[in-house]
């Protein structure tokens, strides 16, 4: 498909979001949105369009994708959309695998970022979340720290914008996360959208997310909750790791073409 075939309108500014479930918007449930989720990137796009009607938006992110898959499947389509702004977060799913060579992985990441920069677009990178307080993922904290050092070096080398997820201490409050404990919830995606708009220097009219105080729970209730989470979320996640399948298999990007409307 040629670049001209991919462009839906005469957009003067074009925001293309690349990545995995984080950027697709997992757990920000919205039945009216493609794939049934909204997410921080959609919220940023909506605000950009409110600020300036010349923006178009595409979201190529698909849940479960590893870094190589993100660049293999999304890089050429992103370049074809002639972006003026690109956000990219990839590598979180690699870090969670039993073994990973983070240094080698980030050589590919640097290559992909350079390809995106060659379009002339403003490129925005993300560090990974500090999982030190997350029971399921705290063992991967060291890997994420190495990943982040590479991201910071690439951002510094090329003078790129950086959304520093690692140092956003407000996300240590688990009320911003979904019940699956793996993805941001609605309030978390709202907060992340505000953080990205801050980095972009754009006007932000997104309301402050509201989180409710967690009611006290008894020990039996806590145990039942842990059993439910293990059955409904941890075991399916573990099974996908063992069988080398992905929640994004057979799924398509939400907005593969530029649009001027975010549902």
From TrEMBL:
<protein>
    <submittedName>
        <fullName>Lysophospholipase L1-like esterase</fullName>
    </submittedName>
</protein>
<dbReference type="InterPro" id="IPR053140">
    <property type="entry name" value="GDSL_Rv0518-like"/>
</dbReference>
<dbReference type="Pfam" id="PF13472">
    <property type="entry name" value="Lipase_GDSL_2"/>
</dbReference>
<dbReference type="InterPro" id="IPR036514">
    <property type="entry name" value="SGNH_hydro_sf"/>
</dbReference>
<feature type="domain" description="SGNH hydrolase-type esterase">
    <location>
        <begin position="17"/>
        <end position="189"/>
    </location>
</feature>
<dbReference type="InterPro" id="IPR013830">
    <property type="entry name" value="SGNH_hydro"/>
</dbReference>
């Amino acid at each position: 498909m040629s670049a001209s075939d991919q462009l839906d309108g005469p957009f003067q500014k074009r925001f293309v979001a690349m990545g995995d479930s984080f950027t697709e918007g997992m757990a920000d449930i919205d039945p009216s949105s493609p794939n049934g989720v909204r997410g921080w990137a959609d919220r940023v796009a909506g605000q950009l369009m409110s600020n300036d009607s010349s923006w178009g938006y595409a979201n190529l992110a698909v849940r479960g994708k590893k870094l190589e898959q993100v660049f293999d499947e999304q890089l050429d389509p992103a370049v074809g959309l002639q972006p003026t702004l690109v956000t990219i977060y990839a590598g979180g799913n690699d870090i969670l695998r039993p073994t990973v060579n983070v240094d080698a992985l980030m050589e590919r990441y640097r290559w992909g970022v350079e390809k995106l920069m060659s379009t002339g677009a403003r490129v925005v990178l993300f560090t990974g979340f500090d999982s030190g307080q997350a029971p399921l993922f705290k063992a991967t904290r060291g890997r994420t720290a190495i990943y982040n050092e590479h991201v910071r070096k690439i951002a510094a080398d090329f003078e790129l914008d950086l959304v520093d997820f690692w140092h956003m201490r407000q996300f240590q409050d688990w009320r911003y996360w979904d019940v699956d404990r793996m993805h941001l919830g609605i309030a978390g995606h709202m907060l992340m959208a505000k953080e990205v708009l801050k980095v972009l220097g754009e006007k932000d009219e997104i309301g402050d997310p509201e989180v409710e105080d967690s009611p006290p729970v008894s020990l039996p209730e806590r145990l039942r909750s842990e059993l439910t989470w293990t059955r409904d979320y941890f075991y399916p996640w573990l099974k996908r790791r063992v069988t080398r399948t992905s929640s994004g298999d057979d799924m398509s990007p939400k907005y593969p073409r530029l649009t001027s409307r975010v549902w």
